[in-house]
Every structure is written in structure tokens, then in C-alpha cells.
Design brief:
about 500 residues; alpha/beta; Nitrilase/N-carbamoyl-D-aminoacid amidohydrolase; about 45% helix
């Protein structure tokens, strides 16, 4: 059986539906099996299609995949950017349509380069094209590496390979597995006899690497207090709420005993103004915390000349500052300016024209522990985060996921932080304004969590770790080079087939 035997409308419907399945493999549902099912259906549908037909099926798949997966952009632009609903919907639609280009290209190119005589080579080619285009999606226009297929394995059966190959490597394995399953079911008997041993070897290799670790505990546990104020985004930047925010976070930080606390962390933009405006007002609190031997980190805006930076400020001790390097599209800058520049006049997102920090990304020394800092969207980039190790023994991320509303995005963001913890084998503490705030161990397991849309504190003890994983050493280069090699072989094989036909 092949997709050409089905009516076109059935193929198209299956393409959209299979795309709709893929987001179910990510948080909050985390049904990792859906990633394999979804991609297997897509791979089946493009068998024996022309490049144009396959590209169209991939485009329809992308409509379902990204239409559900990044629908939260509408909340960011409409509910919190004050754009009228039709404009917010249009911006979201355009963004989704841009994203659909990637699966469309993957399917179209595969149909052009595929090896009809070898199910295994064709499966590797599909996985290679998919991952190369995921990598491209993480680079073009500043990058948007959201809901990568590899994130489905944060809690999946091959998630333990993250320290070896990272999220993109996991994407390759899942896409390859999906394609091999299709080959196993629908290929000739000869091809099945080759596919089955390969799948067995992949499973065997995965089990052989389970339990291997690159890092080890070091030093004493760090006692951290996470503070989630749950101030609604619509009220956060109001002038008359500024004093309330400062009082709220100060009071919550000290509402329980500090005798066993080393570090208090406030979320991104917990101080919703420039730091120099409130530094003197915060001085009594900072002095008190320092007397208690407690460090405090807070998200705040820092200005230097005409530039404003989304930052983490150390309120005590050395008063060090970290400035965010990766900015959030639609929240901190407007992507696709040539499309959205006019529309930006009708969107009112506070502090949405920020500057990116530069210079070496070095950890801060607090309480005898090297702590690697990141802000919000930055923990989505494993290639950036890996530079924080081996120097950092603990990772801290502060976020403002209130921009996403009551959507899947806050949970998806936490899932990405869990993947970073697994890739780098470091505990990661993430604190957000309205949730989800959580402490994650080096295996990506949740040590404690403050739920979404909840006000509260969470005291946890995290174990610093030292060492460097294979992924932290190499980054995405191995999977990129391997995938590029496969596609290059496919390209030159196609050229040779064409030349031999004359």
C-alpha cells in the first residue's frame, strides 16, 4: 500500500491530522509516542510522490504542527501586546506560514533525492534533511528552535542520550526511527531483513549507553528559594503597581526562615523598571539579606546610555549584572521587520525594543558556587548554554512566561529547561512570574515546582556538579556534519543517476 492509492483529499487530511498529533508529544501532555506516530504517517504519505506533491503534503503537515505548537504567539500579541484581534491573528498566521516552509522543504527535497532501491538510505536521508532544517530554523532571523522533535524525548525512552547528542541528535533518532518503522511495515521482504537488524542495533546501542554519566557531585548542596509573585502581565508594568511588586517580592522572600537559605531568586522583570530608579529603595532589603548571609538575584531592566537591557541583577554581594543575549521575538524585538514594521505601530508591548548583551558569558560566584545565568528564551538554545560549562556548577534561569497566557507554552518552556539540564548534566533552577517555576536535577527530573497561575515560594536544595558532557564539548556539530554528509551523498548520487540516464 502507498499514499498514491488514496484519494488526494484523504492524503491531505491525514497530513494535517498527523501534524496536529506532533505537539501532543511535548509538554504539557508529553505523549512522546505521538512524535513517532506523527512522523511515521508523514513519511508514509510522501512515498512515491513527486517533489511538488511531497512538498505540499509537508506544508499541510506544518500547518497542523505549528498551528497548534506556536498558537501562543496570538496571546503575546493580542492579550499582552494590545493589538486588535484580527491583527494579532494575522501576525500569528504569517509566522505559522513561515514555519511551514521547513517541513515542506524537507519532504520536497527528500522526494527529489530519495533512493528508491534502499529503504534504509532513504530513511537516513529523511532524518538528515529534517534535522538540517531544524538547525536552520534555529539560526535564521535570530532563530526559533521551539518544539523540536527531540524535545519529545525529554521524558522519553532515549532521553538519556541527551548528554551525548543533544536535542538535535534526539530529533535525528526519532525521525529515523519513524521512517524505519514505515520501511519495516511497507517495504519488500529483502529490505525488511536489513531494516530489522538496524533497528535492533539502535535499541541495543541506546541501552548500552544508559547510566553513563559525564559529571559528578561537588561541594555542598545549595539551598535556593524560588519566589513566584504571580503578578498578572496586564498589571505588571503599571506605575502604581511598582511599589506593590517590590514590597511583594521582598515580603515573600522573608516570609519563612532564612536560616537555611543560601540564594533567593526572583523572576525575569520582577522589578519592572530600570534598576537605577529603585536601587536606593531596595537598599534596606538588600542590606538585611546580606546580613543574613543570603544572596538575591532578580530580573530587572538596566540602562546604559540609549540602550536598555533585560538583565539579572545581584542585589547583594558584588552587585554583578548579567545582560540577556538572546531576545524573544514579538516580546523583546519584532522579527520579520520588513513584514511587521507597519503592524508594530499598532502593538504596544512594554520594553519591546531592547538591546542584546555582549561579551563573554561567564558564571557568577555566589555562596562558593559558580552559577551560570540565563534569561527566558536563552535556555532554548543548547548551543549557547553549553558554553556555561564546565565552569558553572549550577544553572539559574529567570523567565516571564506570563506573555504566553494560559497556553501550553509555559509548560513547553519548562520542558526545554529540563532538556538543557540533561544535555549539560547540571541542576537548573528556573523562576517565572506566573509559573511554571521549578527546580530540575541533572537528569531533567523535577525536584519541586510552583504551579502555573499560583503565588508562592519553593525552598529546594540542589547539588552542584562538575564535569563536561560530550554534547557540551561538541555542540551540534556532529549531528550537523553527519546530516550534511548524508544529504551531500544523496545529491551527488542523484547527479550520477541523471548523468547515467543520458
Amino acid at each position: 500500500m502507498n499514499a498514491q492509492a488514496l484519494p488526494s483529499w484523504v492524503n491531505w487530511t491525514l497530513a494535517v491530522c498527523s501534524g496536529l498529533l506532533l505537539p501532543l508529544s511535548f509538554a504539557p501532555t508529553e505523549w512522546w509516542q505521538m512524535a513517532i506516530v506523527s512522523l511515521a504517517v508523514l513519511y508514509f504519505l510522501i512515498q512515491r510522490l513527486s517533489p511538488k506533491q511531497a512538498a505540499f503534503v509537508g506544508w499541510l503537515f506544518g500547518l497542523g504542527y505549528f498551528g497548534i505548537g506556536v498558537h501562543w504567539i496570538y496571546f503575546s500579541v493580542h492579550l499582552f501586546g494590545a493589538a486588535i484581534a484580527p491583527l494579532a491573528a494575522l501576525i500569528t498566521l504569517i509566522f505559522v506560514l513561515v514555519m511551514t516552509v521547513f517541513p515542506a522543504l524537507c519532504c520536497g527535497l527528500w522526494a527529489r533525492f530519495r533512493f528508491a532501491s534502499s529503504s534504509i538510505v532513504s530513511a537516513f536521508l529523511f532524518a538528515a534533511l529534517w534535522v538540517l532544517l531544524e538547525l536552520a530554523r534555529g539560526k535564521i532571523m535570530g532563530g526559533f528552535p521551539w518544539i523540536l522533535v527531540g524535545y519529545s524525548q525529554t521524558t522519553g525512552p532515549v532521553g538519556h542520550l541527551a548528554p551525548f547528542i543533544g536535542a538535535y541528535g534526539l530529533s535525528f533518532l526519532i525521525v529515523l526511527s519513524s521512517a524505519l518503522i514505515v520501511a519495516l511495515i511497507f517495504s519488500s521482504t529483502k529490505n525488511r531483513l536489513l531494516v530489522f537488524p538496524l533497528m535492533f542495533l539502535l535499541v541495543l546501542a541506546s541501552f548500552a549507553l544508559k547510566g553513563l554519566e559525564f559529571s559528578a557531585p561537588t561541594g555542598e548542596r545549595l539551598a535556593v528559594r524560588l519566589v513566584q509573585g504571580n503578578i498578572p502581565q496586564s498589571m505588571k508594568f503599571s506605575r502604581d503597581r511598582l511599589n506593590h511588586a517590590l514590597d511583594l517580592y521582598s515580603d515573600m522572600s522573608t516570609q519563612a526562615s532564612l536560616s537555611d537559605i543560601d540564594l533567593v531568586v526572583w523572576p525575569e522583570t520582577a522589578i519592572p523598571t530600570h534598576y537605577d530608579r529603585v536601587e536606593s529603595a531596595l537598599e534596606p532589603f538588600a542590606t538585611y539579606m546580606q546580613e543574613q548571609g543570603v544572596d538575591v538575584l532578580s530580573g530587572v531592566f538596566v540602562r546604559e546610555g540609549d540602550d536598555v537591557y533585560n538583565s539579572i541583577q545581584q542585589l547583594t554581594g558584588e552587585r554583578a549584572t548579567y545582560r540577556k543575549r538572546r531576545l524573544v521575538p514579538f516580546g523583546e524585538y519584532m522579527p520579520l521587520r520588513f513584514v511587521f514594521d507597519y503592524a508594530a505601530k499598532f502593538v504596544d508591548i512594554p520594553m519591546s525594543d531592547l538591546s542584546a548583551g555582549t561579551g563573554p558569558h561567564e558564571p557568577l560566584e555566589m555562596q562558593g558556587t559558580s552559577i551560570g545565568l540565563s534569561i527566558c528564551y536563552e535556555d532554548v538554545y543548547g548551543e549557547d548554554m553549553r558554553h556555561l560549562v564546565p565552569a558553572s556548577k549550577v544553572l539559574v534561569n529567570v523567565s516571564n512566561d506570563a506573555w504566553f497566557g494560559n497556553s501550553a507554552a509555559p509548560h513547553q518552556h519548562e520542558q526545554k529547561a529540563r532538556m538543557r539540564a540533561r544535555e549539560l548534566e547540571r541542576p537548573l533552577v528556573r523562576v517565572t512570574n506566573t509559573g511554571v517555576s521549578s527546580a530540575i536535577d541533572y537528569n531533567g527530573d523535577i525536584l519541586g515546582r510552583i504551579a502555573h497561575d499560583t503565588q508562592g515560594i519553593l525552598d529546594v536544595r540542589v547539588q552542584p556538579r562538575e564535569g563536561i558532557t560530550l554534547y557540551a564539548r561538541t555542540g551540534n556539530w556532529p549531528v550537523f556534519l553527519f546530516s550534511f554528509f548524508i544529504v551531500a551523498v544523496g545529491y551527488f548520487a542523484l547527479k550520477m543517476r541523471h548523468s547515467s540516464s543520458y
